[in-house]
Design brief:
Layout (H helix, E strand, L loop, with lengths): L11 H14 L4 E6 L10 H5 L9 H10 L6 E6 H11 L9 H11 L3 E4 L14 H12 L3 E5 L7 H6 L5 E3 L4 H12 L11 E3 L4 E2 L25 H4 L4 H5 L6 E4 L2 E2 L10 H5 L4 E2 L2 H13 L5 E4 L8 H18 L2 E8 L6 H9 L2 E9 L3 H6 L6 H11 L6 E8 L7 H14 L3 E6 L9 H7 L41 H18 L10 H12 L6 H13 L3 H17 L1 H10 L2 H5 L5 H13 L8
Parallel strand pairs: 1-2, 1-3, 3-4, 4-5, 8-11, 11-12, 12-13, 13-14, 14-15
Antiparallel strand pairs: 5-6, 6-7, 9-10
Helix pairs in contact: 1-8, 3-8, 12-13, 13-14, 20-21, 21-22, 22-23
Bound molecules: cobalamin (B12) and iron/sulfur cluster.
Cobalamin (B12) binds next to helix 3, strand 4, helix 8 and helix 11.
């Protein structure tokens, strides 16, 4: 029976299409929500997986969809996090070939026997149609089975909506937030009466039609507690990590996520949040959210959290109320949390920092992005170098946080080397614990990503270039300047991709390692070491991380551990001509020849290296 509809709140083309699907598949009310692997198989590094260095995020988006459907009659839902299952399998069973991962999906399908399968996904940008791309491969597998109504959504799919529908990879795509859309879709599929209005972020059929309706940003109601019955949340830390912060607090510390606000007040030109989430901030209900966090801590043993928010400080009073609400969990269970996604720099206040201190915040990133005023203006970043400096000074009073600044180089494919130097300069002036440099990528426009990638000369991969390749080592063109030579580049040069990689490598080494404030007198070497030892997990072949972890240990007075790192560095250098040459070009070989014995030798050794660089003058 077609559902009873009110023509003002439905799109008849969508209703007809779903009617056709109903006829073709005779679906039962069983819905499987799938998160495919979140990494690309072409760049898989099994050693890093086994060291638990890959992302393992609970599937928050799918959990919200499950909650949205929980009030519908008799809909049975189950969440299958294939990313988790695959990581667990690869860690436990060394004989398991990663390319057999679809067998894990097949097992879940067999067990649950769904009629509708919803697929989410977030991967780095790559060919989204490739036979090995985890999202495309999952969808293709499901469609070829010919037994399921297949719906897709999430950030990556939102970049290829038309292409995915037109190539028959799914029946429906939902762009952006999915709660209202999924509820409407399932009502139209299963219910006799449709009670929810159509929303225009639904795309459907092989013609990629867009539903006509009134846009309604989702107001998140309630919490995710019920959905956690499906999620073995305490096992995620055994399979991977959230980011270096979760590894820093201890890889065995069970972790989860929370989200207070959806959306972001800002609309930075390079960022995908506004196009994906729409404008405006929607705040979760405070008490239910606190209940969720309390449940995770008290009943599931979670001890570390990551804030998923794009704008955690959007409403300072609510953020303060939330933080006050979790103080007892800090006091009774020693919880920690971090905000790797970043806080809006100008929204940071002493009051909030005090509450962050009282709730076990281990660190956060702040969005700076560029040092040149014209680039900041062009990207509509709130803040100026002067306002960033003011906050950086304030942050020096909170040395217990590990604070990283986010910076982008190669902006819009047009940034000059001189403008990049201004960014480097600002990073040095702000003197934070870390400066995360990333290479600019196209992420912020809906439409076809493949076309945009072609326009941007080749495929974009990870923001952090060393993560794009299985070995996590950059292969450089040795004829291009690197290290000290790089600073002789004419300031009006607009570097291409290879040169950008060299600039990235040089800025990263100089700002974060050779010139790191925590490896100078008065710095906190132990904080530096905890961070480097946490990031090293993901870069087993990187000798400079070993060298600097070793130097940090020496400054801490732990020469024994320092020598272990040093030995690992020498082994890696012995195995790699490329790295040995790079060490020479960066001036690091002297530190390897005579490894410092104490803090004073580390300080002076690093100063000597810095002196070999003619750096821009500090403003
Ligand atoms: C946490 C996070 C991550 C985590 C992973 C989170 C996860 N669960 O997988 C990590 C740190 C790994 C990550 C990495 C990256 N991320 Co990220 N990440 C986020 C962040 C901050 C929050 C995501 C989240 O959990 N949201 C909360 C839940 C509730 O939302 P959701 O998952 O999107 O689900 C909703 C909808 O998407 C929809 N939905 C989702 N799936 C489905 C399926 C169906 C069938 C339906 C109907 C609906 C639906 O309904 C859900 C409920 O509303 C977002 C910012 C944002 N505003 O979304 C950026 C964001 C998603 N990331 C982004 C990017 C670019 C990346 C990277 C590609 C960056 C890079 N090049 O390195 C990497 C690549 C990931 C990888 N695998 O290597 C962009 C994506 C832009 C775009 N449209 O392409 C965002 C929007 C941030 C930004 N600044 O632009 N990320
Ligand atoms: S402040 Fe951050 S999340 Fe918000 S638009 Fe800018 S970059 Fe994106």
């Amino acid at each position: 029976m077609p559902p009873e509809v009110d023509s003002r709140t439905v799109d008849s083309r969508l209703i007809n299409y779903l009617g056709e699907l109903r006829q073709r598949y005779a679906p039962q009310r069983r819905l499987l929500l799938v998160q495919p692997p979140q990494f690309l198989f072409d760049a898989v590094n099994l050693e890093v997986i086994r060291r638990r260095g890959y992302y393992a995020y609970p599937p928050t988006g799918l959990q919200w969809l499950e909650i949205a459907l929980s009030e519908m009659n008799d809909i049975q839902t189950e969440i299958c996090d294939l990313n988790l299952l695959l990581l667990q399998r690869l860690i436990d069973d060394h004989a398991f070939p990663p390319e057999d991962w679809l067998n894990l999906l097949e097992q879940q399908l067999e067990q649950f026997q769904p009629s509708v399968v919803c697929v989410t996904g977030l991967t780095v940008y790559a060919d989204l149609f490739s036979p090995t791309h985890p999202i495309a491969a999952t969808l293709r597998y499901l469609m070829e089975a010919g037994r399921y109504i297949v719906m897709a959504g999430g950030p990556t799919v939102s970049n290829e909506i038309t292409g995915y529908l037109k190539s028959g990879l799914c029946h429906v795509v939902v762009d952006g937030e999915g709660e209202y859309a999924i509820r409407h879709l399932l009502e139209a599929l299963f219910e006799e009466r449709i009670t929810t209005p159509v929303v225009p972020n639904i795309y459907f059929s092989a013609d990629a039609l867009k539903a006509e309706g009134t846009s309604r940003p989702v107001i998140p109601l309630g919490n995710l507690v019920k959905s956690y019955s499906d999620i073995p949340v305490e096992q995620y830390c055994r399979a991977g990590c959230l980011n270096p912060y979760s590894r820093m607090v201890g890889q065995d510390s069970p972790y989860a996520v929370f989200q207070l606000n959806r959306g972001c007040r800002c609309n930075c030109a390079f960022c995908g949040v506004r196009p994906f989430m729409g404008s405006g901030i929607r705040t979760c209900q405070l008490q239910p959210l606190l209940e969720e966090v309390r449940y995770l801590v008290e009943e599931r043993g979670i001890r570390h959290f990551e804030a998923l928010d794009d704008d955690f400080l959007a409403n300072p009073e609510t953020t303060a109320a939330f933080l006050k609400g979790i103080i007892p969990l800090r006091e009774d269970f020693g919880i920690t949390w971090a905000a790797n996604n970043g806080l809006i720099t100008n929204a940071i206040t002493p009051e909030l920092l005090e509450l962050m201190r009282a709730t076990g915040c281990v660190g956060f990133k702040i969005g700076i992005e560029a040092g040149s005023t014209e680039m900041l203006r062009r990207m509509k970043k709130p803040g100026t170098p002067a306002t960033f400096k003011k906050i950086a000074v304030l942050l020096q009073q909170y040395p217990e946080f590990f604070v990283g600044g986010n910076y982008i180089i190669g902006l819009f494919g047009e940034e000059t080397f001189g403008q990049m130097l201004a960014t480097y300069q600002l990073a040095i002036d702000l003197d934070l614990d870390w400066s995360t440099f990333s290479i600019f990528q196209v992420t912020n426009n809906p439409g076809s990503l493949s076309e945009k990638l072609q326009a941007m000369s080749g495929s974009a991969t990870d923001f952090i270039p060393t993560k794009s390749i299985a070995s996590r080592n950059l292969q450089e063109d040795s004829s291009l300047p690197l290290g000290a030579e790089l600073f002789g580049l004419p300031h009006n040069t607009v570097p291409g991709r290879d040169l950008l990689n060299n600039i990235w490598l040089t800025f990263n080494l100089l700002a974060n390692y050779i010139g790191n404030k925590n490896l100078k007198p008065g710095g906190d070497a132990s904080k530096f070491v905890r961070w480097i030892e946490a990031i090293r997990i993901s870069y087993p072949e990187n000798p400079y991380m070993c060298l600097f972890a070793g130097l940090g240990r020496v400054v801490m007075g732990d020469r024994e551990r320092g020598l272990e790192h040093y030995a690992a560095c020498c082994t890696l250098l012995g195995q790699s001509e490329v790295w040995s040459q790079r060490f020479e070009r960066f001036g690091l070989h002297e530190l390897v020849k005579i490894f410092p014995r104490n803090d004073v030798e580390v300080y002076s050794g690093l100063e000597d290296v810095l002196e070999t660089y003619t750096l821009p003058v500090s403003s």
